[in-house]
Task: inverse folding
């Protein structure tokens, strides 16, 4: 049996409770006037039936694995005192063997693993059977209690909406907790990194070479964790991308909003938004196979030294990719400006271009800033185009014709493969993530200030 069986049984019982509750309410409607619609009585019975069983099923899905791991280690005294890496390898072999897969090379010959796998399988089956039984019993009890309370005077709508309001509140709290968990995990792991590397060296160091050796006598055992080249490359590529996306996107929005005919707008706007649906790996191939060689050929023709992978190639293609973010949101903001502002400007004798420059764009600036901010965030977080067109070299340069790297590319390269989260090399990825989070937060605060300023002026 699997955990999905528990959810399926609870869902079937809740569906049956909904049908019975609704039928009972319709039967009572002939004798007295119902307080709520019949469907609310069905939802009332379904919620009383489904929520207790769903809580049991969710608890099993969340905590069963860790409980079985602790039980397995507790029943194997020789493994309980081992290191965490040895325990993780042992538990992985036990799970693989219990699920019918092959364990590691030496695990099948180890009788201790086989015995632990047998105990693991037995405990999992018993626990799942107990969870399934308890969920069914609680669902039946809740459904029976709800059906007994179904009556014309029962305020079913109020009760159902109160439960739904609490569910929405829990969903909002869950989203906030997830955000807080991400932030605290970054802070905790970055703190471990800063115990090994000085924050001053990380924030102001001019050399990034996180490769560290296993032994202290090996070459490069100390590593270099100066993040300035990484952030400089990120800002350089983002600036190039925004220099392409913002003018083209904003001018496209203005053209479609004021100058294009309805027929042209109906074709141009969807065609422009198609760019947002192209996979980033396709843009990466386009940048690596067409844009980068073209830039190199033009540079050599002009007598310039151009790297095969350059920030300019990555920035140009990234700017093309994020044009729809600027144009679509700017177009929505421009078309949302009240017609009274346009008519008033025209009535005072302003031309169309003067109305756009002095009335429409300032009034739509909050939406335009939001679109630009979204485009900046998209450019900062892009990885595939940078890997394929700009490379992995952490060069501290302002020359767009040289190879650079970005924060997200370094995070991916540092966390690729089997990693032990106890070295400065791996932990540096969390420090980069925390610094990037702070930069994004500053951008959001700046955008909110701009939005609030112009909203007070035009609303």
Result:
């Amino acid at each position: 049996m699997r955990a999905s069986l528990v959810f399926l049984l609870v869902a079937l019982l809740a569906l049956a409770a909904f049908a019975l509750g609704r039928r009972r309410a319709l039967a009572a409607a002939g004798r007295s006037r119902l307080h709520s619609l019949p469907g609310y009585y069905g939802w009332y019975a379904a919620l009383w039936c489904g929520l207790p069983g769903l809580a049991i099923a969710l608890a099993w899905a969340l905590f069963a694995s860790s409980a079985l791991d602790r039980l397995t280690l507790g029943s194997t005294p020789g493994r309980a005192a081992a290191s965490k890496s040895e325990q993780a390898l042992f538990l992985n072999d036990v799970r693989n063997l219990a699920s019918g897969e092959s364990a590691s090379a030496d695990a099948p010959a180890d009788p201790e693993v086989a015995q632990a796998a047998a105990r693991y399988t037995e405990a999992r089956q018993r626990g799942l059977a107990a969870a399934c039984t308890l969920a069914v019993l609680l669902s039946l009890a809740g459904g029976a209690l709800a059906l007994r309370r179904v009556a014309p005077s029962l305020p079913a709508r109020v009760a159902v909406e109160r439960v739904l309001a609490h569910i929405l509140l829990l969903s909002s709290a869950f989203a906030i907790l997830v955000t807080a968990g991400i932030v605290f995990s970054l802070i905790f792991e970055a703190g471990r990194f800063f115990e090994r590397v000085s924050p001053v060296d990380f924030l102001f160091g001019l050399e990034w070479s996180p490769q560290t050796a296993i032994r202290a006598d090996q070459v490069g055992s100390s590593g270099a964790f100066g993040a300035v080249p990484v952030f400089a490359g990120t800002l350089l590529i983002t600036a190039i991308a925004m220099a392409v996306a913002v003018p083209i996107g904003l001018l496209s929005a203005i053209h479609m909003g004021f100058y294009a005919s309805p027929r042209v707008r109906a074709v141009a706007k969807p065609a422009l938004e198609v760019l947002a649906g192209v996979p980033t790996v396709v843009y990466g191939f386009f940048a690596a196979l067409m844009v980068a060689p073209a830039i190199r050929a033009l540079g050599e023709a002009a007598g310039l030294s151009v790297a095969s992978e350059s920030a300019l190639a990555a920035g140009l293609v990234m700017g093309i990719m994020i044009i729809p973010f600027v144009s679509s949101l700017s177009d929505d903001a421009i078309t949302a400006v009240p017609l009274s502002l346009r008519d008033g400007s025209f009535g005072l004798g302003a031309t169309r271009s003067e109305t756009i420059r002095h009335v429409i764009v300032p009034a739509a600036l909050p939406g335009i800033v939001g679109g630009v901010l979204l485009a900046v965030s998209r450019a900062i977080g892009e990885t595939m185009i940078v890997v394929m067109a700009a490379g992995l070299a952490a060069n501290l340069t302002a020359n767009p014709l040289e190879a650079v790297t970005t924060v997200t590319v370094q995070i991916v390269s540092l966390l690729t493969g089997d990693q032990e989260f106890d070295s400065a090399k791996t932990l540096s990825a969390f420090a980069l993530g925390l610094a990037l989070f702070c930069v994004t937060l500053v951008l959001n605060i700046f955008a909110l200030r701009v939005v609030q300023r112009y909203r007070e002026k035009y609303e």
